[in-house]
Amino acid sequence: MEIRHDSASIGKHHETLYFPAGDLVLAASLKNPGHADGSVLFRVHKFMLAHHSPIFNDMFALPPVDTIETYDGANLVHMPDSAEDLEGLLRVLRCLPYNRRDFDESYFLCGVLELAIKYEIDSIRDRIVGQLKAEWPADLEAWDQLEDRRQAIWKAGDSDAAAELLPEPVLSIQLARQCDARDVLLGAFYQLSWLSAWDIWDCASPDDDATFNPKARWNLLDSRDLLRIIRAREVLSFRTKADPVKMHFLGKRCSESESCNRTFRLIWEDMSSEICRTRDPLEALRILQRPSSPYTSMLCLSCCIHEKTFLRNMRKKMWDNLLSTIISIPIS
User: Fold this and answer.
1) Which residues contact 87 (CB under 8 A, 6 or more apart)?
2) Buried b (16+ CB within 10 A) or exposed e, 172-194
3) What are the structural domain ranges in the chain?
4) Which residues is 24 bridged to in the sheet?
5) Taking Cα atoms as reference points, which of 170, 235, 246 lies closest to residue 202?
6) Which residues does the UniProt record annotate as the domain BTB (predicted)?
7) What gap in Å lies between CA 134 and CA 168, rounded to an integer?
8) CA 145, 150, 151, 157 torsion: positive or negative?
């Protein structure tokens, strides 16, 4: 027995994802219908869904049942997913190979990933995971290279291109947890640990005209993650204050102990000032570690080697401990 529906009893056609040649109509309800019709109709090709999803492929392979719902001459399926998430998934499927920057980076991306996992559409899941890992590298050297590229692009005057290299971190954390991409959390949490609470996504901050400031959707941050970030700031602050005490030990073959001790004090005063300015201890340490640092010529050769080695090891240790510092802190 076939059940037909008229247009008024189902819902509204999607403006762009209702293809007359399609052989399948998907009906889905809006999350927040407001004053609009509560259902949206998508007309697509079964082949597209079956090609990308083994779940849909198995569903379409089932023998027909006695009761078949149709609409506008095509089979009708009522989807348990929201119309907003389904729209996002269909948009991405039409644009494969998927590029995250081809779409407005809004909340729909989490819904797309959720459906990609649910319907085992690995092409979308793997693409999102790959782009997340490229945007938030877990390797310190790769993180530094990304920062160098971003700074070079920003100094060239293209702040929009610079912003793309460090996307919004809160949404990235949500996506990483959905697809179990744990490595992504490292960079995203670290960026949040030094961002100001006034650096709000889609809002201008007082310093925007002077420098490029990454932003975050602080309002979407889980309360437990916020506590992790607060504790991480305290831990990172403590380490940048406590570890420099070790620098009082000069190089093993120091030839200018008085001068080198004086220089070391200047180095850490400069580092503290840079951390206060940028709130980014890793970047502050890297600036001092560069060969162009003015302090290089103020130290004897032994202490210069000792300083560079110490700074490099300090940064590496700080980065390696970020997961335990930020993510694995017990939250009671």
Assistant:
1) 14, 17, 40, 42, 108
2) bbbbbebbebeebbbbbbbbbbb
3) 2-130, 136-221, 239-322
4) 44, 75
5) 170
6) 22-94
7) 14
8) positive
CA distance 109 to 132: 12
C-alpha count within 13 angstroms, C-beta hemisphere, residue 103:
22
Q: Work out the angle at residue 258's Cα, subtended by the Cα atoms of residues 255 and 260, and round it to the nearest 5 degrees.
A: 65
As given in the structure block, the two tokens for residue 132 are: 């997340």
Confirm if 96 and 125 have CB atoms less than 8 A apart: no
Specify the fold of 2-130: Potassium Channel Kv1.1; Chain A (3.30.710)
SS3 67: coil
- The tens digit of pLDDT for each residue in 253-271 reads 788 888 888 888 888 888 8
Tokens 């602080």 found at: 218
- How do residues 27-74 score in pLDDT, each as one tens digit? 999 887 664 557 899 999 999 999 999 999 998 888 776 677 888 889
Q: At 142, is the pLDDT very low, low, confident or very high (cuts 50, 70, 90)?
A: very high
Q: What rounded mean pLDDT belongs to the chain?
A: 81
Length in residues, the chain: 332
The CA distance from 289 to 283, in Å, is 10
Q: How many CB atoms lie within 10 A of CB 232?
A: 20
Rounded distance, CA 302 to CA 45, Å?
Answer: 71
Task: List, edge to edge, every strand of the sheet that includes 12-18.
Answer: 2-5, 68-71, 74-82, 24-29, 39-44, 12-18
79-95: burial string, b at 16+ Cβ within 10 Å, e else: bebbbbbbbbbbbbbee
Helix and strand totals (H; E) in the chain? 14, 6
Closest listed residue to residue 212, CA positions, set 268, 258, 257, 153: 153
Burial class (CB in 10 A: 0-12, 13-18, 19+), 273: exposed
Alpha carbon of residue 121 to chain centroid: 21
